[in-house]
Amino acid sequence: MLLVNALYFKGAWEDKFYEPATNKQDFYVSENRKVQVEMMRLTEDKSYYEDQEVQVLELGYLESQVSMMIILPKVKNGLQNVLQGMDGRKLSRLEN
What region holds the Serpin domain (predicted)? Predict the structure, then answer.
């Protein structure tokens, strides 16, 4: 397991995103600032976890044991609080 907040990895998704469903939506870069970005959509059964703080989605790569885990805080700008409370036990729970 590798924990990073930014990484470049060129790989093909296990399930491709449906390009015509991509559209511009708001993305908050800070509490008061948002930008319009292209948001991809996918309707598939995926590993998903949710609790009071976060929503977690795991996306696999084609023909690989590598996957990407996306951790989305439920509170806007709540990433710092989620990361401060993160330890190996909690990360393992999110992964399973």
Answer: 1-93
